[in-house]
Specification:
The protein is mainly alpha-helical. The protein has helices spanning 15-24, 31-34, 41-56, 69-88, 105-112, 114-122, 124-134, 138-167. Helix 4 runs antiparallel to helix 7 (124-134). The longest helix is centred in the C-terminal third of the chain and has 30 residues, at 138-167.
């Protein structure tokens, strides 16, 4: 069976997310977010395989004009993508405000919290679910949820490893 790739497909919705990851991914420098050292090989391989599927599958999903419940999908995609982008900002190297001043202690606190560190691993699910609605694909929605679960598990493993090393007496 040959996959039917439409010219107007949901992959176009993945482009902003892919570009964001490619252009700004190296700016997230915290090892407790980016390290692979503390995760088992099988987890990394499953996560990577699912990542490829979740990012490529939209090529097979025709992009329909948003009407009815697809409008909700478009709204979820836009809001989810913006939240995903915003979740990266506290984790980027040397975060400062627009005027170059140090950011507030609350912002710095969020940057070090479990929720702040895991947010970039969880928030893309909103955009993926918006794409699933726009492409009318429950299969894609399920794949996105499973991928996000493995992506989050990888992040939790990193945090646990870092926290256990901090708790050990010197």
């Amino acid at each position: 069976m040959i996959p039917n790739i439409q010219l107007v497909n949901c992959f176009y919705l993945m482009i902003p997310i892919l570009l964001w990851n490619l252009v700004l991914g190296s700016r997230i420098t915290q090892a407790k977010v980016t390290s692979n050292a503390h995760s088992p090989r099988w987890l990394l391989e499953v996560e990577e395989g699912l990542r490829v599927i979740v990012f490529a599958f939209p090529l097979l999903m025709p992009l329909g004009w948003p009407a009815g419940w697809r409008q909700a999908g478009l709204a979820l995609y836009v809001v989810g993508t913006l939240i995903y982008f915003a979740s990266w900002l506290p984790l980027m190297e040397k975060p400062t405000s627009a005027n170059g001043m140090e950011l507030s202690p609350r912002f710095q606190s969020w940057r070090q919290s479990r929720a702040g560190l895991l947010a970039p691993r969880l928030t893309p699910l909103l955009a993926f679910l918006g794409i699933a609605l726009l492409g009318s694909s429950w299969v894609y929605a399920i794949l996105a949820v499973v991928f996000t679960g493995f992506h989050l598990a990888h992040g939790v493993q990193n945090l646990r490893a870092r926290e256990s090393r901090k708790a050990e007496p010197a």
